[in-house]
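Q: Please design a sequence for this.
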């Protein structure tokens, strides 16, 4: 995977497979600490300590459709290559939180990528009820909440071409403006 948005999509798909109806994605970029943090939280079924201990092994997966699980192991590898780390916190019945850290200016830190495309793909997933996205750059924050958008749209589908174009542009433009301080 070449950028963070693809890691986010993969981990969020794991969350949906774990019956999550709410996903929160938090990206924090702190220039003074030279730190990039990516956190994905869900309200899915959670994992046992045994599964948590195995989930970073690429030859372990809980899926029946394939014999490998590469998303979390690749995210761990990317984080380690950028002098960061991966941590997983999960409670059965309550959900999972995965955090990957990277040195912000490290040559191996993946770029953000097309996060607006990733978020839109998640927004239109029929099993996802709410998606919260917080992007923090130093002291500035951009927040996006699918629940708020849906209440504003009052039944207009997200896949309506003008809505789809607007949402992607809105997310992309706000992140560009937010990151101008870096």
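A: Design:
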């Amino acid at each position: 995977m070449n950028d963070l948005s693809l890691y986010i999509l993969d981990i969020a798909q794991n969350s949906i497979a774990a019956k999550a109806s709410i996903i929160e994605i938090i990206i924090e970029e702190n220039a003074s600490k030279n730190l990039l943090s990516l956190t994905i939280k869900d309200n899915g079924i959670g994992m046992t300590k045994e599964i948590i201990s195995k989930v970073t092994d690429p030859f372990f997966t809980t899926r029946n459709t394939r014999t490998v699980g590469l998303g979390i192991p690749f995210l761990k590898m990317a984080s380690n290559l950028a002098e960061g780390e991966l941590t997983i916190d999960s409670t059965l019945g309550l959900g999972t939180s995965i955090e990957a850290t990277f040195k912000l200016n490290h040559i191996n830190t993946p770029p953000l990528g097309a996060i607006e495309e990733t978020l839109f793909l998640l927004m239109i997933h029929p099993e996802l009820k709410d998606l919260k996205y917080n992007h923090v750059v130093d002291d500035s924050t951009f927040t996006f909440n699918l629940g708020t958008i849906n209440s504003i749209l009052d039944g207009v589908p997200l896949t309506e071409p003008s809505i789809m174009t607007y949402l992607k542009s809105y997310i992309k433009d706000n992140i560009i403006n937010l990151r101008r301080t870096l």
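Q: Thanks. Anything notable?
A: The radius of gyration is 16 Å. The CA atoms of residues 30 and 138 lie 5 Å apart.
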